[in-house]
Amino acid sequence: MRDDRWTRIEAGWLMDGSGAPPIRDAALLIQGRHIVEMGPAASVHRPGGLVTELLHPAATLLPGLVDPHFHAGYNGHVGMTQLEWPATLEYAAVCAGANAARSLSHGYTGVLDVGCRGQIAVATRDAIDRGVIPGPTMRASGQILASVGGPLDLWPPSFHVDPATRLAVTVTGVDEIVSVIRRQRGTGVDNIKVMVTASTVQATERGSSIAFTDDELRAATRAAHDNGLSAAAHAEGPEGVTAAVMAGFDTIQHASFVDDRTLDILEAHPRSTLVFTLGVYRSIIDRGPSVGYPEPARAHVIARWPEMLAGVLRAYDRGVPFAVGSDCGGAVHPHGLYAQEIVVLVRECGIPVEHAVRAATSTAAIAAGLDGAGRLQPGALADLVLVNGDLSVDPEHLLSRTQIERVLKSGVQVGGTSNDRPV
Ligand SMILES: [Zn+2]
After folding, report:
1. Measured in angstroms, how far is the CA atom of residue 168 from the centroid of ligand 1?
2. Adjacent-strand bridge partners of 251
């Protein structure tokens, strides 16, 4: 493939991922793998010679979307134990390949996998990088570090589940944590995931439920960073979020309840990025009964939903940057619903669509550790998506693959319904 080929795209609307308002009747010029120019169509030049022109006057052009809470290997479980049984590790690995391809076809060109059985995410990432399967640019985690007897220690001690096939690796104490992180580094992970708290959203009791000591959390981030890895915390309530931020985690995943004090701490520690995951809870409310989701847990989510929305709005109103991640993969919130995050931000939080898109592009790229992704700007890799219609009016279009007109990764079309592919 020649690297000097030109592609010029015209679109009815363009959002660059920065949060700036959409540009009407815009154009974007690509040479080879990179964006060279963009802006109002009349201002973007037409190079001489062979140029592929893609005209989409009724579509919105966005940066490739980024999901910083992805689980390639999750596929249809109801309840956490089904993540380890009866589906085999091999079945989960095959699903991971299919899910990687699916996310790309929905316009997601970058993801951070935040935990898998065995070494499925590393294998998926490598298969994508080697061109074996289509998929987004992926940063991979290994098994989730969880405390012995804690939220992801799913089986009674009399059950002997092969530790290598589990979702979590259970650890106690600084030495074990450091040892596991070094071992994961050896298997090729990019990120460490730590289950700092249980799920307070679905639990019937309230509590901070921090599963590790401060020393253990600090040891985890230090070992991750010393080994060149990022560190992600599953943390839901204000106490857990605060503990994770103070310990130096790069991403605070879920952060389902944040108060003003938590946001004060976040403002003082800009290294930590919030990754809200509202979509999965919206799905529990909307789709729970149809997939047999436990009704008491669903009722709990319904009761806490306004508080979750209020936390997001509190962060938004204070200008604390945040990303959104999908946590897709369970039966109640299957792969494909990644952009439900954007829809909830717009429809239920009343956030302007360009700011919702920012949370799923440029800020999501920072959270995912994908430097330079999530923005349409000269010099950036041409990862982008064209979705039918004016996204300000119809953000729901991102949920439907049939509304995705094109997905380009590094300047090459890799998905979408328009089949006049660039030459
Ligand atoms: Zn998750």
Report:
1. 12
2. 232, 273
Cα 14 to ligand 1 centroid, rounded to whole Å? 31
3-state secondary structure at position 58: strand
Q: How many angstroms is it from 330 CA to the middle of ligand 1? A: 10
Residue 291 CA neighbour count, 13 Å, CB half: 17
Among 3.40.228.10, 1.10.530.10, 3.20.20.140, 1.10.1240.10, name the CATH number for the domain at 65-368. Answer: 3.20.20.140
Ligand 1 center to residue 326 CA distance, Å?
8
Of 75, 108, 103, 110, give the one whose Cα is nearest residue 89: 75
Token representation of residue 136: 């987004």
State in Å: Cα 198 to ligand 1 middle. Answer: 12
List per-residue pLDDT tens for the chain, 423 residues long. 457 899 999 999 999 999 999 999 999 999 999 999 999 999 999 998 889 999 999 999 999 999 999 999 999 999 889 999 999 999 999 999 999 999 999 999 999 999 999 999 999 999 999 999 999 999 999 999 999 988 899 999 899 899 999 999 999 999 999 999 999 999 999 999 999 998 765 554 555 578 999 999 999 999 999 999 999 999 999 999 999 999 999 999 999 999 999 999 999 999 999 999 999 999 999 999 999 999 999 999 999 999 999 999 999 999 999 999 999 999 999 999 999 999 999 999 999 999 999 999 999 999 999 999 999 999 999 999 999 999 999 999 999 999 999 999 999 999 999 975 543
CATH 2.30.40.10 assigned to 6-64+376-415: yes
Query: Long-range contacts of range 253-257, CB-CB < 8 Å, 24 or more positions apart?
Result: 253/68, 253/69, 253/114, 253/193, 253/277, 253/325, 254/69, 254/201, 254/327, 255/311, 255/322, 256/200, 256/201, 256/281, 256/304, 256/308, 256/311, 257/200, 257/304, 257/307, 257/308, 257/311
Distance 345 CA to ligand 1 centre (A): 19
Residue 114 alpha carbon to ligand 1 centre in Å: 6
User: What is the CA(280)–ligand 1 centre distance, in A?
Assistant: 10
Ligand 1 mean position, distance from CA 278 (Å): 12
Instruction: State the span(s) of the chain assigned CATH 2.30.40.10.
Output: 6-64+376-415
pTM score above 0.90: yes
**Ligand 1 mean position, distance from CA 249 (Å):** 16
d(CA 388, ligand 1 centre) in Å: 29
Q: Looking at the chain, which residues constitute the CATH 3.20.20.140 domain(s)?
A: 65-368
Q: Give the Å distance between the CA of 253 and the centre of ligand 1.
A: 8
